Amino acid sequence: GLPERVTIWEVGARDGLQNESTVVPVDVKLEFLSRLADAGLGVLEATSFVHPKWVPQLADAEELLAGLTKVDGVSYPVLVPNERGLDRALAAGVRHIAIFGSATETFAKRNLNRTLDEQFAMFEPVVTRARAEGLDVRAYVSMCFGDPWEGPVAADQVAAVGKRLVDMGSSQLSLGDTIGVATPGQVESVIAATAAAGVPVDDIAVHFHDTYGQALSNTLAALRLGVTTVDSSAGGLGGCPYAESATGNLATEDLVWMLDGLGVRTGVDLDRLADTSAWMAERLGRPAPSRVVRALRG
Ligand code: HMG
Ligand code: MG
Hints:
By secondary structure, this protein is of the alpha/beta class.
């Protein structure tokens, strides 16, 4: 069966923009977030408190949060890799953070400048302090289905990394197909292995990139296993600067089109959302990758 309702975790302002080489002005980012909230999205990943040299596009995190008018009932999580990032996030009044680990050695090095093992030592004090401050914590795992340098990734490896991040005190685990190579059978194996390691399916979210056009099929496979939180990016923007061949995320419009058709509630107004992505595409100077945005807005 399928869930009655799905929570969409909108990553457009973070994952969507982090790879854009031209810096998007902060007032455009703020209008983007405000339009996304108006379209009915309840979780808006807003930015990252990472090293500004590593992700120059998000170097304006403080300015963005200072200018943000939070809408009642909307959560604005941010990415935090380490204690320095947590200090910055707390000073900015953040209440919801996401740490982001890697399932592979190579990507831990490239994305975090840490070994696979060292990443846990970096995250542990972040989660402990964040929980003590009453913050909600999500944990991402990247490269859950394949890694551009290491090739296929074992499901048990993903489950072991995910379980460790959950045991630290994260309340949700987002399984990331960073480079978009997964197919539905693999999604089933990785979710089954993660559940078998002791992470309840209720606490698992999925994060697909659409590089090989598999993101919607993979999402449906996850929903059939009981997953109810799905990450996506308005217009299909996105990609990771530290992952070769990572293209756009699953587009939120494509996701909403499928869920509307299936009668699964999301609370999102597709028309307003497509307008927002068309507006953002104009700001970025190229059409939105989303098939649904193109079909609806030409
Ligand atoms: P590092 O160079 O090892 O940092 O980077 P360090 O701990 O050695 O510190 C070096 C200097 O940086 C120090 O300053 C720190 O204070 C400063 P100094 O004492 O030399 O003057 N520093 C910071 N400054 C500001 N904010 C901070 C911060 N941390 C240290 N937070 C680090 C390690 C983790 C910081 C770096 O590797 C980094 O920023 N990485 C982030 C990369 C990133 O954002 N990638 C994209 C997000 S992940 C993703 O997209 C995947 C996902 O979507 C899921 C999926 O698709 O799979 C989530
Ligand atoms: Mg991503």
